[in-house]
Design brief:
The complex is a heterotrimer of chains A (213), B (320) and C (536). In chain A, 78% of the residues lie in helices and 0% in strands. Chain A is mainly alpha-helical and 213 residues long. Chain A has a single domain (14-41, 74-212), classed as Cytochrome c oxidase, subunit III, four-helix bundle (Four Helix Bundle (Hemerythrin (Met), subunit A)). In chain A, helix 2 (51-58) crosses helix 6, helix 3 packs antiparallel against helix 6 (183-212) and helix 5 runs antiparallel to helix 6. By secondary structure, chain B is an alpha+beta fold. In chain B, the strands form three sheets. A five-stranded mixed beta sheet of chain B has the order 3-2-1-5-8, with helices on one face. Chain C has helices at 17-21, 26-54, 65-84, 87-101, 109-131, 145-149, 154-181, 194-226, 239-273, 280-293, 309-337, 346-369, 371-377, 381-411, 417-444, 458-488. In chain C, helix 8 (194-226) runs parallel beside helix 10. Classes of the chains: A mainly alpha (213), B alpha+beta (320), C mainly alpha (536). The A-C interface holds A 2, 4-5, 8-11, 16, 19-20, 23-24, 27-28, 30-32, 34-39, 41-42, 45-46, 49-50, 53, 128-129, 140-141, 143-144, 147-148, 151, 155 and C 1-3, 98, 103-109, 169, 173, 176-177, 180-182, 207-212, 214-216, 218-219, 222-223, 226-230, 234-238, 241, 245, 513.
């Protein structure tokens, strides 16, 4: 990453540095997995305590937006992988175009999630608190569900925004990468896919389990 | 008073015995460790001319032996502690039940006869006592060092603690879970007295006519809160013919197995009845419509305990 | 980043503030960390001193229970997250890991600097929380007290720990990758010094457990800010879930605190016994076993909290299992001293003190793992004494042992030996006077976190507070003579102890690039020739 030398001075070769960077990001992702782990665990645990009410909350979510967003993210990861393939052949232009597509798809997710879906949720009075719109016996469990919902989607959204920044950074620096030396593209790609995987766990928890029962 | 008091319960003395054994094991190991260190510090100090012997290459015999020895001792201690612990938290069926509610920063106690006390608990000796405890706010912990026993007291659920005291006396009661600024002041005393004295104490205070026992107070609540509107007078149960709606009978409910709509069966204990009152939708009963309203946030912990006491007092077919 | 002047000492490679604050040199970052954690150690220690002052009288001397609660919460938070968890890894570990590996730096030097800045940011937020009035929840932040009832700066305190967590993760990640990828030619896994193995085990815990704490704290803050959340029993949440998640991090975290200490002691005992470490592979695998089993014992903090009886049995058994590797280590250190040529310089005195205090702390842990005994002893001063024996008697002694041992390497100066020995002995005596009475207090039933207490606990509390005074002197002493030695200490040779290990083959203080020529490792560690002459 340093232009003056072929690699940083603690490494024996550029290849050595590349391998090290890739090990680092995998370890970071392991750490991230344990970051999200408690939400999934607590989510399943909380639903177990009062499934009927919890699912009553879940049924108030916007399934169509959720489905669209899932498609957007999967497509975005695909686009990123194509971009990574292009730089493997040395095509900076191809990489930049496909990464830009990946970026736009990710941004669309953010827009849809927070610009549209959250607004609809707020209008329906689904944010937990005294003004919560669901009454009756399911009120408590449904509030618990929406506490998880807002917390988890906000956190996932934050990760995605960081990801958008990183992808943009790669696009702006596209000139620096070659077929042999592009480990930052690889590293960001792993992170981008990881955000996708987190969503693929959140999606059924939010939209499907409540509807299935 | 140096603070040491021999335990006044059988289980407490067993705990003391276990602690004594642990102390002896620890002292033996520490004596070995310190003796060897001191011996080597003197014998193998750099200036010492003592012959050192050939450097031993094979260490694994030592490693295996001390690992195995450690494991064996640990396993004995585990079994000992575990066995006693399980007995410690299994109350006998005939225990006298007393209800305890913790709140910032006091202990509220209510006896079945309706006698209430604050930061004090009067109990008879030579009789198993079971405390049914809950909290109105944060987590507290009911701890009596003289009985060698304690348990956390959580909001939203019942914890049980039992003991049987052999000698009369007054014993310190502490809250041992940090519960806010007044944590240190959430103390009290447990007064153990002989059965006759205890009965005199129970009869003292307010004249019997003015004091309601818990079940009677619960009965009044049962009517005032509209429970009898569906479950019928005396909790005999309701049907479209009698009360207009189908509602399960509560007489004789306590301790019985109940079938839920999920197909599971649960024992109707204090916690189950509490959940049915506060979060009825959580575990709906098989064969009845889900129409029971939730009383969550509308009824105090103490009133829930009184309702439970009332429901426990209802025998099958009886009309109290 | 090319360095033409390969042999300039890292201390002389730039003298501007900028050359320190923007450095990516692991050695300079280690020094930055030493300054920071020394501050937090004395800040937390000052709180402890006030706590002991308060407890001299049964009525409490500082006049306000609220102040007292804030003091012990601050003491816990600062000591756990701003001293014990980072202490050895970020100072000695940062300085020594590349040197011991035969590398020029850690794998990600800029990440290393970032982690220092995160640590400092966390420290500033923590100090803001303290200055703004502090928190009164204890360092354990149990819900619902913390989420709904507490009055203090909970969000700021929790935010500080959250940020410090990222610093921990960055450091741990850096160590793991460096140990995998930057070992010198010939340094196979079994040729690594035990200190590196300990750092590795520690780092695994940091990387895998810290994020769980981070998420748990976020859920807690959400609950506090919005007045509704997943631990709230009123809507069907469970406060015990918070405890499970909290201890899932915080129990492994105590191994984060102690494992690097094991590493330090495993370096020092052979060096001052002039003998190979007894049972190298057992010591190494004991560290790994502790790191793995340590993830499975969190439930032993909850034996009286309301979890199921049978889960308690499992956690009790596992807690005994995790104690076995620690016992193995103690026996191996003593085995190392057998047939040695033992010298009693300050690092060795600290190390011997460590073995004794750690053994006491570990054995009293057996009391708390025995379920029925735990019922009586938990949440009393017995627990306080137990973990201070392990954390302060053990870990702080190990940190001081390491600091003295590698001080000549880090600073190029020798500390005054007689003062060093005096400090070690004063700390040992003061420590035992402070904390041994607390075992008795706990058995007698004195609860933790009490601002005032019944009269009959007074004598032992007085003894404990008296001991704390001696302990305070013991801790201030090294601050004085180590600082003095920076300016007036004799110059150190490359290897003043005659110790093995790659860090001793380079000059003291080492040049920025660590090694002029990348070393090639052919020998196993700790190949001491007996009674060889040592030049200081």
């Amino acid at each position: 990453m340093n232009d003056a030398a072929a690699q940083e001075f603690q490494f024996g070769s550029a290849e050595h540095q590349r391998e090290t960077a890739i090990s680092g990001i995998w370890l970071f992702l392991a750490s991230e997995a344990l970051f999200f782990g408690p939400i999934f665990l607590a989510w399943i645990f909380a639903r177990h305590a009062d499934p009927t009410a919890f699912d009553a909350g879940s049924r108030q979510t916007e399934l169509m937006i959720g489905l669209t967003n899932t498609a957007l993210l999967i497509a975005s990861s695909f686009a990123y992988s194509v971009g990574l393939g292009y730089i493997g052949f040395g095509s900076r232009r191809g990489m930049a175009i496909w990464l830009a597509i990946a970026w736009l798809l990710g941004a669309a997710f953010i827009g849809l999630k927070f610009g549209v879906e959250w607004q609809m949720d707020f209008k329906k009075g689904l944010f937990p608190g005294p003004a919560f719109a669901i009454h009756g016996p399911a009120r408590n469990g449904a509030q618990l569900f929406f506490a998880f919902y807002f917390f988890a989607t906000a956190l996932h959204g934050l990760h995605l925004v960081v990801g958008l920044g990183l992808v943009a950074w790669i696009i702006f620096r596209a000139e620096r990468y070659t077929a042999e030396r592009h480990s930052p593209v690889h590293v960001v790609g792993l992170y981008w896919s990881f955000i996708d995987i987190i969503w693929l766990i959140l999606f059924p928890l939010i939209y499907l389990t409540g509807r299935a029962s | 008073m140096n603070g040491y008091a021999p335990s006044v319960t059988v289980e407490g003395r067993e705990i003391d015995f276990l602690i004594l054994a642990l102390t002896l094991v620890s002292c033996a190991v520490l004596a070995l460790v310190f003796a060897l260190i001191l011996l080597y510090m003197v014998r193998y100090r750099a200036e010492s001319g003592v012959t050192r012997g050939a450097p031993g290459r094979k260490t694994w015999r030592f490693e295996i032996s001390w690992t195995a020895a450690t494991l064996a001792v640990f396993f004995v201690l585990f079994i000992w502690g575990g066995n006693l612990y399980v007995r410690l938290f299994q109350p006998p069926a005939d225990a006298l039940q007393i209800y305890v509610v913790g709140k910032q920063w006091m202990w509220k106690v209510e006896h079945q006869g309706g006698q209430r006390e604050i930061n004090a608990l009067h109990i008879p000796i030579n009789r198993p006592i079971q405390l049914v405890m809950t909290s109105e706010d944060v987590i507290h912990d009911f701890s009596v060092p003289a009985f060698r026993i304690k348990h956390d007291v959580l909001p939203g659920r019942y914890q049980s603690l039992w003991f049987q005291v052999e000698t009369p006396g007054t014993f310190e009661l502490f809250c041992t879970q940090l519960c806010g600024v007044g944590h240190y002041s959430m103390t009290g005393e447990v007064v153990a007295m002989s059965q006759p004295e205890f009965e005199t104490w129970l009869a003292g205070g307010a004249a019997p006519g003015e004091r309601e026992d818990m079940a009677t107070a619960g009965k009044a609540l049962f009517a005032a809160r509209g429970c009898s509107g569906c479950h019928g007078e005396g909790g005999v149960g309701g049907s479209s013919a009698t009360t207009g709606v189908s509602a399960p009978a509560l007489a004789g409910l306590f301790g019985r197995l109940v079938r839920l709509q999920t197909g599971a069966t649960v024992t109707a204990d204090e916690r189950f009845i509490r959940d049915c009152i506060l979060t009825p939708d959580k575990a709906p009963i098989a064969g009845y419509p889900r129409i029971m309203p939730s009383f969550s946030g509308q009824i105090s912990e103490e009133d829930v305990l009184r309702l439970i006491a009332y429901i426990k007092s209802l025998r099958s077919g009886s009309r109290t | 980043m090319t360095h033409t002047s390969a042999q300039v000492s890292y201390l002389d490679d730039g003298h501007t503030l900028r050359s320190w604050l923007l450095t990516t040199d692991h050695k300079r970052i280690a020094i930055l960390y030493i300054v920071a954690i020394t501050f937090f150690f004395f800040a937390g220690g000052f709180a402890a001193f006030l706590i002991r002052y308060n407890l001299i009288s049964p009525k409490g001397l500082i006049g306000s229970a609220e102040t007292y609660n804030r003091l012990f919460s601050m003491h816990g938070i600062l000591m756990v997250w701003f001293f014990l968890v980072p202490a050895v890894p970020v100072t000695l570990g940062n300085f020594l890991a590349p040197l011991m590996l035969g590398a020029r730096d850690l794998a990600f030097p800029r990440l290393n600097l970032l982690s220092w800045y995160l640590f400092m940011a966390a420290g500033v937020v923590a100090l803001y929380a303290v200055v703004g009035g502090g928190v009164d929840t204890g360092w354990t932040f149990y819900t619902p007290l913390t989420s709904f009832y507490s009055q203090g700066h909970v969000v700021a305190a929790v935010a500080a720990i959250f940020i410090a967590g990222f610093s921990s993760i960055a450091t741990g990640l850096n160590f793991i990758v460096s140990i995998h990828k930057l070992r010198a030619p010939g340094m196979t896994w079994y040729k690594m010094p035990v200190f590196l193995w300990s750092l590795y085990a520690t780092s695994v815990i940091l990387v895998l457990a810290t994020p769980v704490l981070a998420m748990t704290l976020l859920l807690l803050v959400f609950e506090r800010l919005f007045g509704i959340g997943v631990f709230d029993p009123a809507i069907g949440g469970d406060p015990l879930l918070f405890q499970h998640l909290f201890w899932f991090y915080s129990h492994p975290a105590v191994y984060v605190m102690i494992l690097p200490g094991f590493g330090v002691i495993s370096e020092i005992i052979p060096a001052f016994s002039r003998k190979e470490l007894f049972g190298y592979k057992f010591v190494v695998w004991a560290s790994i076993a502790i790191a793995v089993i340590g993830f499975l014992v969190w439930g032993h903090h909850m034996f009286v909290a309301g979890a199921s009886l049978y889960s308690a049995l499992v956690f009790s058994l596992l807690s005994y299992m995790v104690a076995v590797p620690s016992a193995i280590k103690v026996f191996n250190w003593i085995g190392t001293m057998h047939n040695g040529y033992i010298r009693f310089d300050a690092p060795m005195l600290y190390a011997i003190g460590f073995i004794g205090l750690f053994a006491t702390g570990g054995l009293t842990g057996l009391f708390l793992a025995a379920l029925a005994a735990d019922v009586h002893l938990t949440q009393t001063y017995f627990v306080v004494a137990h973990f201070h024996y392990v954390m302060v008697g053990g870990m702080v002694s190990a940190y001081f042992a390491g600091l003295h041992f590698w001080w000549p390497k880090m600073t190029g100066r020798l500390y005054p030996e007689m003062w060093g020995r005096a400090g070690a002995i004063i700390i040992f005596v003061g420590f035992n006077l402070t904390f041994f009475p607390q075992f008795l207090l706990g058995y007698l039933g004195m609860p933790r976190r009490y601002f005032a207490y019944p009269q009959h606990f007074e004598a032992l509390n007085l003894l404990s507070s008296g001991g704390a005074l001696i302990l305070a002197v013991g801790y201030l002493l090294p601050l004085g003579y180590l600082t003095w030695s920076l300016f007036y200490g004799a110059r150190a040779s490359a290897n003043p102890w005659g110790a093995t290990g790659l860090e001793w083959t380079t000059p003291s203080p080492p040049p920025t690039e660590n090694f002029a020529v990348t070393p090639i490792v052919t020998k196993a560690p700790y190949q001491y020739r007996r009674a060889e002459a040592v030049e200081r």
